Amino acid sequence: MSRDLDKGKSASSSPDIEAFLSKVRATPRAPKSASSGRLIFAIDATASRQATWDHAAHIQHEMFNETSSIGNLSLQIAFFRGFGEFKATPWTTDSKTLIGPMSRVSCLGGHTQIEKVLKHTLHQAANKPVNALVFVGDCMEENADDLCHIAGQMGVQGIPAFMFQEGFDPVAEACFRQIAKLSGGAFFRFDTNSASMLKTLLKAVAIYAVGGQKELENYGQKMGGDTLRLARQIR
Known about the structure:
Radius of gyration: 16 Å
CATH class: Alpha Beta
Helix content: 40-55%
Strand content: 15-25%
Largest sheet: 6 strands, mixed
């Protein structure tokens, strides 16, 4: 279930962004073939998450576009909603194949199922290395110790979790930070005022998963402005 945002708090600051990107740089990537990467993009689709879900449909398409010139991004979308429902799309390197499935999904009320996301990631990595898990959500209604235990297993296997939190739920933040730390990933908090920065950081993770630090710097050079400044933080 979603919780109300604290309207009195601002979006993540520049130091938060720089710290996040520094973690991306420092994260060892799973073994991969040249110019390719595998990324699981998991989203909380409970209750009031519809706006975020709709935005994610555009983001995943742009992630493909940004990585297409440097190599192949193999992406899988996973989500949970309602009463125990958890689904994942097939792996694909074609963003168009995800448009239909994502457009047919509507958000339903229910409890979070982050444990299923983490276990699913480990299961997928058992078949073929996964370079990163990206999770976007706003709250956590599960046993934090159980989630952290699985995150530790991900860390041992070299699968970083990049945890993006919408809003200011302190319980979720504490848990998301631990998941990120134990898995070797990073945490970033955003709100409706920093949605564009969320998109930039998600693209950065995807580009780094495919082409590494050099391609991320090239991305910054192409975009210029704040994006160039952010990319240079992960030297």
